[in-house]
Every structure is written in C-alpha cells, then in structure tokens.
Structure of Diphosphomevalonate decarboxylase:
Amino acid sequence: MASEEKPLVVVTCTAPVNIAVIKYWGKRDEDLVLPINSSLSVTLHQDQLKTTTTAAISKDFTEDRIWLNGREEDVGQPRLQACLREIRRLARKRRSTGDEDPPPLSLSYKVHIASVNNFPTAAGLASSAAGYACLAYALARVYGVDSDLSEVARRGSGSACRSLYGGFVEWQMGERADGKDSVARQVAPESHWPELRVLILVVSAERKLMGSTAGMQTSVETSPLLRFRAEAVVPGRMVEMTHCVRERDFQGFGRLTMKDSNQFHATCLDTFPPISYLSDISRRIVRLVHCFNAHHGQTKVAYTFDAGPNAVVFTLDDTVPEFVAAVRHCFPPESNGDKFLKGLPVRPASLSDELRAALDVDPTPGGVKHIIATQVGPGPQTLDDPHAHLLGPDGLPKPAA
Ligand code: DP6
C-alpha cells in the first residue's frame, strides 16, 4: 500500500549523544549554523544515553505538534521550524527529480513528533545534539528523504550533525557561504577502538546558566583568543587528532583532548563578560586526573568538559577499575553507594597506598553524584517494533507506561 493511502505513517528512531574532543565554539553564520572551526567528536553508546523520537504524518493532522519528555512544546520555535522547512525542501527536491512515482501527498501532511531522553535535558550532557540528530533522522524516514542530513540536524543545533554517525566523527567547517560543504563525516567506525571507555562524572544535574548558543555568540563578539584558536590552533589539531584516532594512540588522543577542553574554557574566560562553566568540583576532577597520570608516568585518563560542570573521562578498559576507585576515594558517595555506578559493569578494585598518597586531595563527599560508564557506539537507528512508538494510532502521545 502506498504511504499516501495509510491513515498514519509513523516511524521511531534513536540517536546518540556525542562528546567533542576538538570543540566547536563560535558561528560565522548564526542563521545557517555555520561554525568558525571544524570539530571532532566521539559518539557515545546508546545503551547508556540516547534520544528516542517518533514522527508521524497523517492527512488528518491539522497542525505540526511536538511533545518533549511528555510535555507539549511550542512547535513555532525557530530552530525546530528551520529543521522542518529543510527536511520538506529536501523531500520536495527528491520528488521533483523523479526518483519516486507517483508523487505522494505526504509532503503536505502535518507532522506530530514525540521525543524522550533517557538522561537529564540541558545538564551539559549534549541532549540537544542527540535530540536534533534524532529529529532529523526520524523526519527523513517519515518523509522519505535519503540525502545527507548534516544540514537538517545542524540547523537544530550545530553539534547535532556529529550525532548522525557512530564512532569518531568530524564536522568539517566548510568554506561556502551557503553552508553546503559544512558537513559531518565519519573518521572511524565504532568498532575501530574497542578498548576505549568513557566515564561521565555527573557533578550536577541542574540546567546550565548560560546556554551554548548565547555563550558562543558573546565569545565570537569579544574574545580575541577564540579567533586565534579558530584560525591558528584548530586546523593543526584536527589533523593531529585524526591521526591519534586512526593510530589508536591513547597518549596523544588523551593529551590533545585535555588541552582542547582547557583552551575552550580559556576562551570562555576570555569572553567579556566572562563565562565559566566549570565548578569547583570540575577543577578537582582535573587535578585528580593529572595526579593519576603523574603517578603512572603516562596519560592513562583524559578529561573533557562542555558547557557545564560534568566531566567526561576517556580511558582504556584496563584502567577503568582503578580510576573509578580513585574517584570514589576523592568523592565518596553520600547516600547512593549502590547506585553510584551506572552503565557498563566495572570490576571492583582497591587503591594502592602509593596511589592514595599520590592523589593528595581532601575527599569531597557527594562531589560526584554518579558515574555513567559507557563506550563508543553506533549512529542513529530505526526501531521496527511498533511497541516502541511514542505516539498511538490517534497520533497523540501514548500514556507513559
Ligand atoms: C561546548 O551545538 O549546543 O558542546 O549550535 O548553538 O546549538 P548551537 O550549540 P551547540 O554547542 C556545543 C558546544 C560544545 C562543544 C561541542 O560539542 O563541540
């Protein structure tokens, strides 16, 4: 049966979070969401962190509607509108090239969208990246678009275009004024570096004070350091990071990841008025990581921080138990000792007296709320099981189970 005859066409997709190891900060075009530098990220596994989105179209719908985490939101917000316009433009383009016959009516249909995260929104865990990547992917499936979705996702949130792929992903800044060459590409698949692990140290689950969009806009306007970074530092770092990933060189990867995070936060401090996303606990984590590495005489763990105080720590699987023990030592869990560690199982380990002495920190109880242990993962997926749909046959959100 052709799609236009169905009362309701519905698809459900999932998309991952990504964490940048070479950061995107600053736009050269606010409208088209074009960056002032290229960036590179690691896609995190959806078993731990993901967005799930259902998109449904029907000739019976009278308006576009969206529900986020169960609550209806304003569908008129500009970024959402930009994504919808862009996907419908791509769908129209595809139809007009005669790839499909007869032209379905579905293009004029209104869409209902429901989306849920399995992690807190806007806590510095890149929820907007997973959210807009999932939206772009689900809309593409429901409207029958199979072209590159970088532009659709990017219009929602710049970093979202990197969540369209698994593994290691670069967002090439591009040069064109229309942004056609500002696209995400996979550098290496998720299977490339199986030993790599990611620990998210959740410091605060509160919403951040200054969103990325406003923050980077002020940085572009006022920070000479940011301009220097984009022009003189990032191009070389992109080459170096790509090389470290390809060679699975953890020492190089870890050092560059930390340096790039530090430089991003330095540009925030160079912004006027200054922006600061790191908390006291974040700085203690930085210190812990450097003490841990100094004790081992090599880069065994590496931190990175986005626009919030949570740390994302990269390490290799054989280092995870000892580093988690070090985190427990420095930030003793307050009440949730059993729920402190989520995600992948971690073998218990005890700290050697030497390492305990090397850490040289006063413990801060409750400083780290919990750790999510995860790994590199695949890109967006389409779910075939109809039970997965967040919208019922009437096109409205199913009551939460
Ligand atoms: C610090 O992609 O959230 O996480 O394009 O304005 O939506 P907008 O910004 P966003 O910025 C992400 C900034 C970052 C670094 C990164 O992910 O590269």
Notes: The CA atoms of residues 326 and 356 lie 8 Å apart. The pocket of DP6 is lined by residues 20, 23-25, 33, 39, 128, 157-159, 212-213, 306-307 (CB under 6 Å). The two ends are 31 Å apart (CA to CA).
